[in-house]
Every structure is written in structure tokens, then in C-alpha cells.
Design brief:
With 473 residues, this protein is of the alpha/beta class. The chain has 3 domains: 127 residues, HUPs (Rossmann fold, 3-Layer(aba) Sandwich), CATH 3.40.50.620; 135 residues, Serine Threonine Protein Phosphatase 5, Tetratricopeptide repeat, CATH 1.25.40.80; 167 residues, DNA Cyclobutane Dipyrimidine Photolyase, subunit A, domain 3, CATH 1.10.579. The protein is 49% helix and 7% strand. Helix 14 packs across helix 16. The chain is globular and about 80 Å long. The structure holds a DNA duplex (15 and 15 nucleotides).
DNA sequence: TGAAATGTTGGGGCG
DNA sequence: ACGCCCCAACATTTC
């Protein structure tokens, strides 16, 4: 007599707390198969990057440990999602399948296929939204079309929806009697980039528990200065919650509600609420990124503004290489790109600077930059990455006008005035006086092991503007 | 979630 | 005392 099972299909919701699919499954009081499938086909033409693989490995390890505290364990498989789920459902008596929705275009197709096949075989499939704060499918403007500017979108959701409360942890996640075959985590070969992982490891502790601890630390120490500190790359003013959010190790609801709680608790400190607003707004940008990907799925591969299909992007391999390696000769750009290579992370302001530089100083297609970020960032997220890059290139939703061009020297002076960030990531410049740190080429007497600027920003700016003029015709 | 070019104003040096 | 010029400092426009 075999047991009756329910199945929870984990994807990018690698947590126990406030996980709708897991919670609902736990209410059924039946043995639960906790399944994770490493399915390379599910990534479409955006294969999982090295940094993300490393994080995923740690996250799966942590989820398995968490499940073991409930006497259960994570079943890991490698291969085609549909085949594996069908195989498990055929071999064990699985009544209900639970999973949380995802929004990547290629995943929507796979999910629909899996769902319809399972339903056809008599299984019940339960799908939840445990990824986002708001029900994005039902949000449209007065003309019943999708919002294309963030502020109007954000205003609408804030006035029409409230963020739902977090679910408690499941009371139990019962294990069945059968020995269900599972791969060893190591066999997925996620941990190939060991050297880079070593440095990442010093920055992030990859677990559900650490995500919450990091949130608490942020809200108690950094939140009060967030508005100004977040723009200074030499400070660690951000929450650094993005990779946890990406892998679903923390729910956006938990973050949102925790910050709201803090504001209410210290309601006499207006400054706290003032600083919390731009932070919550960042969660809003995440929603907006998913909203855009849902309504304009093609934008993961091509510009939203079709006139940009005619933009004369240039395929300069040496420029690309210099950018990737942090050898452009612009200290703030190089500092950012090296932080990325060494840690799998980059400060947000610097992400904008290096993106602007790639698109508007080197004229390299934003997709090329997007691919590099996707491969190297620990928080690589298709929705956010696409939105950010199209914003930088000026070809997406809420796009900054193309002529809005970052001056890497001014940005550097403004946000890294003392050159702390530059000195940390570009050691060749560590001994330079402040007045040359942003533009070391000005001191011709210096003999540095550091490249001269690969392009002249003034010239490239003028060129970018003329391209933009042509595009408007 | 720019930056440069251009326009305006007002204080101070100077004849 | 006065007008003139210079030029920060700030505001507006333009790309």
C-alpha cells in the first residue's frame, strides 16, 4: 500500500516562510514531495549565469536543511520539468500539485504545458503568486492598456491594493514512506566558479535565515540614511536583498510589511518614513519590471521602442572586452566592472553609470550588456535586468530620453567625491590625490599601470546625440 | 534616477 | 556717487 502524496514544485521560491504553495500544501496534512528540478530548457535564451549558479547551489542546500527540520527533504532532479513531474506522479500517488507562478515568457509556456498535462491526467494543480506584492495581471490604465510609466503605475497600485499579510510557517511538512530518488546537489555542477565564489562568500551568507537577518540589520541601521547613502558607492547603504529576492529566499511582502511596521513603531521620527519611501519604491520598481515583462514579453530580447531597431550599435570586441574587464580608463566605470567580477554584485548607481557608458560612449547594444550582467550578477533577474538596461539605453518603458547621458567624471565626483570606491576596486589608483582620482590622465607626469581612456567622453556624447537626432526622423 | 548651453541676476571692483 | 564690467551663482532651456 503506497502513500498518497501532494507535491510542491519549488522554483524561485526557495523558502519555508510565507511560501503560498508550500503553505497550502501543508494544510492538506498529507505527505509532501518537495521537488526542485534543474531544467536548463526552462531558461530560454537566457541561460543561468555562473554567479547565479553558485548562489542557487547554496540556496538549495539551505532549503534542504530547512526541510530537514520538518523531517522532510528536498528531492533534486536534473532534466525536463514536464517529464520529471509526470514520472513522479506516475510512480507515486500524487493528488495535488502546488507551485508558485513565475513570469519569464519561456516559463509561462512550460508552466502552461505542465499544468494542462497534469490536469488532463486527473491531478489537481494549484498555482499561487508568492513572487510579487500585487496581482499584476489585473492592472491597466484608464485606456485598459498597460502602464508605461513607473509613477502612474505605482500610484495606481498603492491606491487600489494593499499588500497581503505574510503566512505563518507550515506546522508540518510530512515525509512519505517511499524512498524517492534524488540527485546529489553536487551532480548539478553549479559550483564551477570557485574562485569568484570565495569572494562572494565573504559578502553574503546564502540562507533564508540570513535574508531576514539582513533585512532587520538594514532596517535598524541603514534605513534612516537610505535616501542619501544609497547613492554613494563607497558606503554600503543598500539592503543587498536583491539576490535573496531573486531566488525567493525572502518574500517581498515580508520586506514591505516589516518596513511599514518600523515606520509605525517610530512614527515620531519623520526622517525614518522619509527614507523608507525610496526604499519601498525600489520594491515598486521590481513589481514594475515584472509587470512590463508580463505585458511586453518580447522586451527581454528587443527594444520596446521600435525605432531603436535602427540604432547603429557597434560591434567592437575590444571595447566590450575593456568594459568587461574594467580597463576603460574611466575609474568609476572600471571600479564598478571590477566589483562585479570580484563579487558578483555592483552598487546600483554604478550599474547605471557603466550601462550608460556601454550604450552611449561605446555604442554597444544594451543586449550585450544585459547578457554580461545576467551572467555575472548574483542577483541576475530577467525582469529587473531588462528594465534597467532598456532604461539606460533609452529604448524601454519610462525610458530616460536618449540624450540624457551620464558624464562618468561628473558622476564620479558627485557620488564618489573622495574616491573611496575607486580606490577599493582599482588599486592602481589607490595612491592618487583626490584631484586626479576621477580623471587620472590629467596628470601627465604620473606613470600608472592604468589605461588611458579608450574613448573621449565629450566626443562620444556628441556622436550619441547626433545618432539620436537621426533616429527621430 | 543628466549635463551642457544659455539666460538672468546681483554684488563688488574700478575708473 | 555712479555707471560699467566681470563673473559667480542660480535658473531656464535645450539636447
Amino acid at each position: 500500500m503506497s502513500t498518497d502524496y501532494n507535491l510542491v514544485w519549488f522554483r524561485q521560491d526557495l523558502r519555508i516562510a510565507d511560501n503560498k504553495a508550500l503553505y497550502e500544501a501543508s494544510l492538506k496534512q498529507k505527505p509532501i514531495i518537495c521537488l526542485y528540478i534543474h531544467d536548463l530548457d526552462s531558461y530560454g535564451n537566457w541561460p543561468i549565469g555562473g554567479a547565479s549558479k553558485w548562489w542557487l547551489h547554496q540556496a538549495l542546500l539551505d532549503l534542504d536543511q530547512s526541510l530537514s527540520q520538518f523531517g522532510n527533504k528536498l528531492i533534486i532532479r536534473n532534466g525536463n520539468s514536464l517529464n520529471i513531474i509526470e514520472e513522479i506522479c506516475a510512480n507515486y500517488k500524487v493528488e495535488n500539485i502546488f507551485y508558485n507562478k513565475r513570469f519569464e515568457p519561456h516559463l509561462l509556456q512550460i508552466d502552461n504545458l505542465v499544468t494542462s498535462k497534469l490536469k488532463a491526467k486527473g491531478h489537481k494543480v494549484h498555482i499561487y503568486n508568492s513572487l510579487l506584492l500585487y496581482p499584476l495581471e489585473s492592472i491597466f490604465n484608464k485606456e485598459s492598456s498597460p502602464y508605461k510609466t513607473f509613477t502612474s503605475f505605482w500610484k495606481f497600485v498603492n491606491t487600489n491594493f494593499t499588500v497581503s499579510k505574510c503566512l505563518p510557517k507550515p506546522k508540518s511538512i510530512p515525509l512519505g514512506l517511499d524512498q524517492i530518488p534524488s540527485c546529489r546537489l553536487e551532480s548539478l555542477m553549479l559550483e564551477s566558479r570557485i574562485i569568484s565564489a570565495l569572494e562572494i562568500q565573504n559578502i553574503f551568507k546564502v540562507s533564508e535565515r540570513s535574508a531576514v537577518e539582513q533585512l532587520y540589520e538594514f532596517s535598524q541601521i541603514k534605513l534612516v540614511n537610505y535616501q542619501s547613502a544609497r547613492d554613494i558607492p563607497g558606503l554600503d547603504g543598500g539592503s543587498k536583498l536583491s539576490p535573496y529576492l531573486h531566488f525567493g529566499q525572502i518574500s517581498p511582502n515580508l520586506i514591505f510589511l516589516h518596513i511599514q511596521e518600523i515606520i509605525e513603531k517610530y512614527s515620531d521620527q519623520k526622517i525614518l518614513a522619509q527614507n523608507a519611501e525610496p526604499f519601498i519604491r525600489e520594491l515598486g520598481w521590481r513589481e514594475f519590471a515584472y509587470y512590463t515583462m508580463l505585458n511586453f514579453p518580447h522586451t527581454i530580447n528587443s527594444p520596446l521602442r521600435t525605432e531603436f531597431n535602427n540604432f547603429p550599435w557597434q560591434d567592437n570586441h575590444n571595447f566590450l572586452l575593456a568594459w568587461q574587464q574594467g580597463l576603460t580608463g574611466y575609474p568609476i566605470v572600471d571600479a564598478g566592472m571590477r566589483q562585479l567580477c570580484h563579487t558578483g554584485f555592483m552598487h546600483n548607481r554604478v550599474r547605471m553609470i557603466v550601462a550608460s557608458f556601454l550604450c552611449k560612449d561605446l555604442f554597444i547594444n544594451w543586449l550585450t550588456g544585459a547578457k554580461w550582467f545576467f551572467d555575472t550578477l548574483v542577483d541576475a533577474d530577467l525582469a529587473s535586468n531588462t528594465l534597467g538596461w532598456q532604461w539606460s539605453a533609452g529604448c524601454g518603458v519610462d525610458a530616460q530620453p536618449y540624450f540624457r547621458i551620464f558624464n562618468p567624471i561628473l558622476q564620479s565626483k558627485k557620488f564618489d567625491g573622495h574616491g573611496l570606491y575607486i580606490k577599493k576596486w582599482v588599486p592602481e589608483l589607490a595612491n592618487l590625490p583626490v584631484n586626479f582620482i576621477h580623471e587620472p590622465w590629467l596628470d601627465e607626469s604620473l606613470k600608472l599601470n592604468y589605461p588611458k581612456p579608450i574613448v573621449n567622453h565629450e566626443l562620444m556624447r556628441a556622436k550619441a546625440l547626433s545618432y539620436w537626432q537621426d533616429l527621430r526622423k
